[in-house]
C-alpha cells in the first residue's frame, strides 16, 4: 500500500489516480472471489441451460436453444415440484409472519423474563437444518414419537405424519416454522420496539382501543419489517431443500419433492446439467420477481 | 376490522384501565400464552437431550418418559468410538472459522474502499453487489460445481469456504456502518500523514468492533450450519461436516434414536454454548439485516 505522506505536493490528477489505484486494490480480493464464484457461475449457468450438456465431454455438448425450458413446461415432475414448493411457501410464510408477530408483540409487553423468552424463541434458528429435521422426524415417529403419543390420548388414529401424502408437507412446514421463526421474531420485535410510544399515547387519547392501536399504529409503523419478513421467508421457502431431503426424501410418492431437490436430482443423479441449469434459471427468475415486487412495495412505503 | 371488533376493543380497554392494582386479566393471559409457547419451543430440546441419555431399548419404548432411568452416556461413548464425529467437528470448525475470518477481511476491505476512498465507479460497483443479493446461492450450484471441479477443489475445505467469502450481506452491513464514521477523523489522520492502509487498520477497524463481532458471529453460525453445498462438494466421509455427518449416521444406524439424538446434541452443542455467551451480538446481526 502506497503511503500518502506528501499528498500536498501532488497534482489533483495524480492524487485521484492514486485514490483509484488504492480503491481498486482494497476492493480486489472481494472482487476476485465475487467474480469467480458468483458472477462467472451465473453466466456459465445461463450458457449451459441452452445446451444438452455432456458432463463427461463438455466440448461435445449440443446446442438446443430454449428446448430445455420448453421441456420444463411439459415435464410433470417439474410441475409437481413447483406446486409442492408453492404449497410449502403458502404453509410456512404466513405462519412464520403470524407466529413471529404474535411472539414479538407478546414479548414486547411488560412481561417477566423477557430476555429468557427472547432467547428461547430465537434459539432453534441456530440449529443446522439436518439436526432440526432429524429431531422432528423422531418427534413425528409413529412408533416412539412424542407427538402421536400425546395425540393418541385424545384421538383413536393419529396421522402417520411423514408417511402420509396429506400430512407430510404440513409436518415439514411445522418443523420449518419452529426452526426459522426466531429470525423473523427478532426482526419484528426490534421493529416494534422502535415504534415511538407517543403514537400510542396519542391514539389512546383519541379513544382507540387495543385493536385500533394495532391496526392504525403498530401495523403501519412496522410495515417495512413485515415486508422484509415476508420476502426473506418467501426466498427461503422457494429454496427449501434440507428438511424434505432428510425427513421424507421427497416422499411419500413425490408429495414433498421440491424445486431444489428436483434440480439436485437432475444434475447429480441424472447428470442432465443443461436441464438442471434451466431449472436453476427459472428458480432465479421467480426469486428475482419476488425481490422486485418487494422493492416496489417497499419503495411505496418509503415515500 | 369491523365496527363490532373496534367496539369490543374499546370495551376491553375500559376494563383494563379500571383495574388499578395487581395483575389485570390481560397481563395474566399474556404470561400464560408466552410461557406456554416457550414450553412448546423447548419440548424438542427436552426430547433430544433426554433421548440421548437413554438406553437403546428405553429410547424406542412406546410411551414417553421425559426423565431417563437409568441415565446413561452409552450412546455418546459409542458415537465417539464408532464414528468419525470428532473429525467432522474439526472439519466444521476449520471451515467456519476460515470462512468467517476471510469474510471479515475481504468485506471490510471493499467496504472501506467504497466508503472512505474516493474514486469513480464506486457507485456502480456497490449497485452490482447489491443486485447480487437477488441471486440465491442454491440456484448457482451446478455451474459453481463445475468451476470448483475445474479448479481441482472437490473434497477440499476451500470448496466450501471460497464461494461464501464474497457474500453481499457483509459488504452491505459494513458500508452502512463505515459511512457513519465521521470523515473529520479521517482528515485529521491524513494531515498527520497516515496512509490509507493505516487509516483502515488503525482507525476504521477498531471503531467498527461491534459490527464486526456481530457479522463474525452471524457468519460463523451460518457457515457451521451449511448443508446442501458441503453435501455436494465434500465426497469422502473423512471430509464431511457435522450437518452432513448426523444425516449419514442416522441412515447407518436405522431406528436408534438414542444414538441419533446424541449426535444431534454433539453437532449443535458448540453453537448453543456460543449462543448463550454471545446472544446479544448474534441478535444484533439479525436485527441489522432487518434494518438494511
Automatic annotation (TrEMBL), chain A:
Broad class of the protein's primary localization: membrane
Keyword terms of this UniProt record: Cell membrane, Membrane, Transmembrane, Transmembrane helix, Transport
Transmembrane segments: 24-44, 86-107, 119-136, 167-189, 224-242, 278-298
UniProt entry tagged with the keyword Membrane: yes
Cross-referenced InterPro entries: ABC_transporter_permease, MetI-like, MetI-like_sf
Superkingdom field: Archaea
Similarity comment: family membership: Belongs to the binding-protein-dependent transport system permease family.
Protein name (record): Sugar ABC transporter permease
The organism of origin for this protein: Halogeometricum salsisoli
From TrEMBL, chain B:
Name of this chain's protein: Carbohydrate ABC transporter permease
CDD domains reported for this sequence: TM_PBP2
UniProt record similarity statement: Belongs to the binding-protein-dependent transport system permease family.
Main location as per UniProt: membrane
Topological relation to the membrane, as annotated: Multi-pass membrane protein
Organism this protein belongs to: Halogeometricum salsisoli
Entry-linked PANTHER family: ABC TRANSPORTER PERMEASE PROTEIN MG189-RELATED-RELATED (PTHR43744), SN-GLYCEROL-3-PHOSPHATE TRANSPORT SYSTEM PERMEASE PROTEIN UGPE (PTHR43744:SF8)
Residue span(s) of domain ABC transmembrane type-1: 89-278
Keyword Transmembrane recorded: yes
Residue ranges of the TM segments: 28-47, 59-77, 89-112, 124-148, 154-178, 199-221, 227-249, 258-278
Compartments reported by the entry: Cell membrane
The entry's keywords: Cell membrane, Membrane, Transmembrane, Transmembrane helix, Transport
InterPro entries: MetI-like, MetI-like_sf
Amino acid at each position: 500500500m502506497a503511503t500518502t505522506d506528501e499528498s500536498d505536493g501532488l497534482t489533483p490528477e495524480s492524487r485521484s489516480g492514486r485514490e483509484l489505484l488504492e480503491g481498486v486494490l482494497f476492493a480486489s480480493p472481494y472482487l476476485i472471489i465475487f467474480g469467480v464464484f458468483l458472477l462467472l457461475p451465473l453466466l456459465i449457468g445461463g450458457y449451459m441451460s441452452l445446451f444438452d450438456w455432456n458432463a463427461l465431454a463438455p466440448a461435445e455438448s449440443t446446442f438446443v436453444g430454449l428446448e430445455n425450458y420448453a421441456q420444463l413446461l411439459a415435464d410433470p415432475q417439474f410441475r409437481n415440484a413447483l406446486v409442492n414448493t408453492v404449497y410449502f411457501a403458502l404453509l410456512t410464510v404466513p405462519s412464520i409472519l403470524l407466529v413471529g408477530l404474535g411472539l414479538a408483540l407478546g414479548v414486547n409487553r411488560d412481561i417477566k423474563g423477557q430476555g429468557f423468552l427472547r432467547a428461547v424463541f430465537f434459539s432453534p434458528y441456530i440449529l443446522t437444518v439436518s439436526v432440526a429435521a432429524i429431531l422432528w422426524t423422531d418427534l413425528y415417529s409413529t412408533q416412539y414419537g412424542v407427538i402421536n403419543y400425546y395425540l393418541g390420548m385424545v384421538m383413536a388414529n393419529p396421522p402417520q405424519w411423514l408417511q402420509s401424502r396429506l400430512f407430510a408437507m404440513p409436518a415439514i412446514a411445522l418443523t420449518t416454522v419452529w426452526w426459522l421463526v426466531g429470525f423473523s421474531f427478532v426482526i419484528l420485535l426490534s421493529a416494534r420496539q422502535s415504534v415511538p410510544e407517543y403514537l400510542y399515547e396519542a391514539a389512546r387519547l383519541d379513544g382507540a382501543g387495543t385493536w385500533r392501536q394495532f391496526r392504525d399504529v403498530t401495523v403501519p409503523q412496522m410495515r417495512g419489517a413485515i415486508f422484509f419478513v415476508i420476502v426473506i421467508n418467501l426466498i427461503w421457502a422457494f429454496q427449501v431443500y434440507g428438511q424434505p431431503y432428510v425427513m421424507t426424501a421427497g416422499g411419500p410418492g413425490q408429495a414433498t419433492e421440491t424445486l431444489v431437490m428436483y434440480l439436485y436430482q437432475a444434475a447429480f443423479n441424472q447428470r442432465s446439467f443443461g436441464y438442471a441449469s434451466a431449472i436453476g434459471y427459472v428458480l432465479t427468475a421467480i426469486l428475482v420477481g419476488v425481490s422486485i415486487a418487494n422493492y416496489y412495495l417497499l419503495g411505496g412505503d418509503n415515500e | 376490522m369491523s365496527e363490532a371488533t373496534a367496539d369490543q376493543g374499546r370495551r376491553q380497554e375500559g376494563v383494563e384501565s379500571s383495574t388499578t392494582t395487581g395483575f389485570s386479566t390481560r397481563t395474566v393471559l399474556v404470561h400464560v400464552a408466552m410461557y406456554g409457547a416457550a414450553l412448546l419451543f423447548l419440548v424438542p430440546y427436552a426430547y433430544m437431550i433426554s433421548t440421548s441419555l437413554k438406553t437403546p431399548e428405553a429410547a424406542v419404548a412406546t410411551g414417553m418418559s421425559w426423565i431417563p432411568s437409568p441415565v446413561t452416556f452409552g450412546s455418546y461413548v459409542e458415537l465417539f468410538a464408532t464414528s468419525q464425529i470428532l473429525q467432522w467437528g474439526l472439519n466444521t470448525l476449520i471451515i467456519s472459522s476460515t470462512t468467517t475470518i476471510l469474510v471479515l477481511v475481504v468485506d471490510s476491505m471493499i467496504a472501506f474502499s467504497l466508503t472512505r476512498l474516493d474514486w469513480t465507479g464506486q457507485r456502480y460497483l456497490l449497485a452490482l453487489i447489491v443486485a447480487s443479493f437477488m441471486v440465491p446461492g442454491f440456484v448457482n450450484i451446478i455451474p459453481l460445481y463445475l468451476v470448483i471441479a475445474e479448479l481441482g477443489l472437490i473434497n477440499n475445505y476451500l470448496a466450501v469456504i471460497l464461494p461464501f467469502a464474497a457474500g453481499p450481506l457483509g459488504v452491505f452491513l459494513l458500508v452502512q456502518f463505515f459511512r457513519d464514521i465521521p470523515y473529520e477523523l479521517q482528515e485529521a489522520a491524513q494531515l498527520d500523514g497516515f496512509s490509507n492502509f493505516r487509516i483502515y487498520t488503525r482507525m476504521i477497524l477498531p471503531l467498527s468492533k461491534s459490527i464486526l463481532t456481530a457479522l463474525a458471529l452471524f457468519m460463523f453460525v451460518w457457515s457451521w450450519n451449511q448443508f446442501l453445498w458441503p453435501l455436494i462438494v465434500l465426497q469422502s466421509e473423512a471430509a464431511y461436516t457435522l450437518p452432513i455427518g448426523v444425516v449419514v449416521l442416522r441412515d447407518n444406524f436405522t431406528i436408534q434414536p438414542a444414538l441419533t439424538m446424541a449426535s444431534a446434541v454433539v453437532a449443535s452443542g458448540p453453537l448453543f454454548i456460543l449462543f448463550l455467551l454471545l446472544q446479544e451480538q448474534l441478535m444484533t446481526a439479525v436485527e441489522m439485516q432487518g434494518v438494511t
